Each structure stands twice: as structure tokens, then as C-alpha cells.
Amino acid sequence: MSEGFGEEWRAHTAISQMGQFSDEGLWWWDGASWIATSQVVLPQLPMTEFEKSGKLEVARAEKAKGQGPFWRDVVVWGFIGLTPVNRNGFRDYRTWTIEQLALATAYLLGPDEPLLAAEVSAYAVWDAWARDLAVAVTAGHVLVFRIDSAEGQPRWIALAGRVSDVKIESRTGLMGRLWPALEISGRMGRWIIHGFGGEFDPEPVLGAWRNAVGAAAAAR
């Protein structure tokens, strides 16, 4: 996996096998110096298995097909995500993003603290939907990433906190299904991860976080 990151990844791992955040999450140790978390920019990630398989191109085509139904849902029903093409498009982009999050987490925390669970936010844009935020949970940390574009990758860190210093709550959305969300709050602020009902699963994130908090408390 490490070879895919190129020279920047190899230089990082040559200095230290594990990056680390300060206790309050405001600083990240790159193996040589502390960098303000808000200033960390992740390098270009390697291709995920989803990309290598050609499924991303199919997902892009599905997203393009969903632009008409997207507006029909907005005008007629007042919300999006009902049509299969939009649900399928978000499902596939979600799969791709979670694979990206596993790589991003490995870059920041090293191989000894892998991704346990993650979820991706979707929001409405002019003629479709796009990704903007994602949350990742490990045994020790909760990370909220900002994604650099609709077709981009996790690039910046909005929140980095130890699991016991972060609170994650689930919102059920309209009628218990439509537009569900995860609310993540910590010392660095509060973020909401929105998703499509049926293609958004908060339980793995909540379960991983609760288990990590419990393990951290037991270890004290």
C-alpha cells in the first residue's frame, strides 16, 4: 500500500512508522516536526481497489443519469434520494470514499491504528449531489475530513480528537428515514455528516466509537 503514495509517503514512513496527534488534536507529528492540524494537507492518495476495478467510471455515469431525477424529486417531492439512480450513485461514491478514508487514516496514524468504521456526507448542488465531509473512527481517534471536490479525495482535517474527547450522535431524519445524519462534536467544533436514507449506515461508526471509548476507559 505504501508504494502508492510515492516519494512523500515513503519519506514520511522512513522517518516514523506512525504519525500522531497531540492530546487536544490541534497538532500532528509527521515524524520530524509538529504541524498544526488545520494546516495538514494530505498528498494524492493511490488508486483504490474501487477505482482499479473500473467501478468509479460506472458510478460517474450513474451520477450523470441521476441529474434529471434529482430535480424531479426536488420539485415534486421536496427532497432527493428517492430514485434508484441517485441512491445507487451515492452508494458507489460512498464505497469509493470509504476506501480513500482507509488510506488517509493509514497515512496520518500509521498501520497500527487502522480504520474501523467510516461514513460519508452528501449534500445538494446545482444539478446533483456531492460529497463534502467524512468521518473516520479508529481505536484511538475520531477524524473528520474535508473532501476537496465532488470528484476528489479527503484532503484536509476538520477535526482530530481522541475517542473519549469526541461525541457522536445519530439523527434519524424526516419520518425516521429521509436525510439521516451523524453529528460529531469535539474541542475543534461540530460537524454534521448527512446521507441518503437506505444508503447511509450510522451504526458501524457509532458502534466502533462506543467500543473504542469503552476500551479507553477500561485501560485507564
Q: How many domains, in number, for the residues?
A: 1
Main sheet: which strands, in order across? 4-5-6-7
| Assigned CATH architecture | Roll
CATH C-level label:
Mainly Beta
Low-confidence stretches: 1-5, 9-18
What would the average pLDDT be, to the nearest integer?
81
Which structural class is indicated by helix and strand composition?
alpha+beta
Residue share in β-strands:
25-35%
Number of beta strands? 10
Helix content: 25-40%
Q: Which homologous superfamily in CATH is the superfamily? A: Pleckstrin-homology domain (PH domain)/Phosphotyrosine-binding domain (PTB)
CATH topology: PH-domain like
Radius of gyration: 18 Å
Number of helices: 6
Query: Given the C-alpha coordinates, what overall shape results?
Result: globular
Largest sheet geometry: 4 strands, antiparallel
One letter per element, helices H and strands E, the order comes to HEEEHHHHEEEEEEEH
Ordered list of secondary-structure elements with their pairings:
Layout: H1 6-15, E1 20-21, E2 27-29, E3 34-36, H2 49-52, H3 55-65, H4 67-77, H5 84-109, E4 117-124, E5 129-137, E6 141-147, E7 154-162, E8 167-171, E9 181-186, E10 189-194, H6 203-219
Antiparallel strand pairs: 1-2, 2-3, 4-5, 5-6, 6-7, 8-9, 9-10
Helix pairs in contact: 3-5
Q: Can you describe this structure in just a few lines?
A:
With about 220 residues, this protein is α+β, with helices and mostly antiparallel strands. It has six helices and ten strands, in the order H-E-E-E-H-H-H-H-E-E-E-E-E-E-E-H.
